[in-house]
Amino acid sequence: MAGTASPGLVWVLIEYPGAWPPNGFEGLDLDAGTKALVISAAQTANARILLVRRPGPRRLGARRRHGPANWAVLRHQSSGAYQQLWGIWERDEDLAKIASALESPGESGFPPVILVCAHGQHDACCAVRGRPVGRALSERWPELVWECSHIGGDRFAANAVIAPDGVYYGGLDAGSSVTTVEDHLADSIRAEYLRGYTDLLPPQQAAVVAVLERFGPAGRHDYVVTETLREGEYWRIHITGKPPHPAHIDVELRARRTPLRQLTCRAPTEGSVIVYEPTSVRRT
């Protein structure tokens, strides 16, 4: 899983408790002008739009609950600061406020949002494996947890992303998800279920995972990638750490393409992906 977090620093969340089409927000039956405005603003800001809903049973055939629903813009600044803006929508046109929110810096001090992919129309595995994880996490942190639409890496379901921290986890079940999020909220990120950080390139993500495997858990910003070199199929990545972690670490990884296989439950054909295997992790 290491090195498979989807890149991005900005997330748009739109609460929609009804059925989610396979392509998420773009497939919703909403006012066309408003939807186009939100999509354009998100593309300009390099933001990812996710539909969200609270975990729990839903009434079959429901399109949208009566009354207001939430929207949010979550931003991970390059400085490491986390910012959020939240709003309410009842009419489709209310979602136009997202466009202006994407141009605002946001506010700090909010707790992180825990997103669990449960997008069954995109891939059945996400619903089958994701919904039990969403329920388990919501029992512990009911105000922080949302089911969400496709976040990438269906083959690693159950998947979760903590935003705006920008941390992807995969291969979770109900029990491991609670302990993983507990550690994360204590700023002690472990390698076992970590897919990567969304502000890093795939080989850089894999290098950080290798460092956490070698030297133990660390905070989200305790390690910084300071140099990345590629020589053919090999990557050499230098990482600096804050005390008490090692100050300088060199990681070497070999990139290779996997054999053809079915990558997701709904995949019509077999495919392959590039994986990054650490060959050396050493202090320098």
Would you summarize the structure shown here?
By secondary structure, the chain is an alpha+beta fold. It folds into 2 domains: 10-185, Glutaredoxin (3-Layer(aba) Sandwich), CATH 3.40.30; 202-283, Nuclear Transport Factor 2, Chain: A, CATH 3.10.450. It has helices at residues 32-44, 97-101, 124-140, 174-185, 202-215, and strands at 10-15, 47-53, 69-76, 82-89, 113-117, 145-148, 160-163, 167-169, 194-197, 223-231, 234-241, 248-257, 274-283.
Terminal-residue CA separation:
26 Å
How many β-strands, per DSSP?
13
Q: Roughly what is the average pLDDT, rounded to an integer?
A: 93
Domain module tally: 2
Sheet with the most strands: spatial strand order: 4-3-1-2-6-5-7-8-9
Number of contiguous helices: 5
Which percent bin holds the helix content?
10-25%
Order of H and E elements: EHEEEHEHEEEHEHEEEE
The second-level CATH architecture of the largest domain is 3-Layer(aba) Sandwich
Structural class: alpha+beta
- Uncertain stretches of 5 or more adjacent residues: none
Fill in the CATH topology of the largest domain: Glutaredoxin
Shape: globular
Major sheet size, sense and barrel closure: 9 strands, mixed
Radius of gyration: 19 Å
Name of the CATH superfamily of the largest domain: Glutaredoxin
Instruction: Identify the CATH class of the largest domain.
Output: Alpha Beta
> What portion of the residues fall into strands of 2 or more residues?
25-35%
Could you state the oligomeric state of the chains shown? Answer: single chain
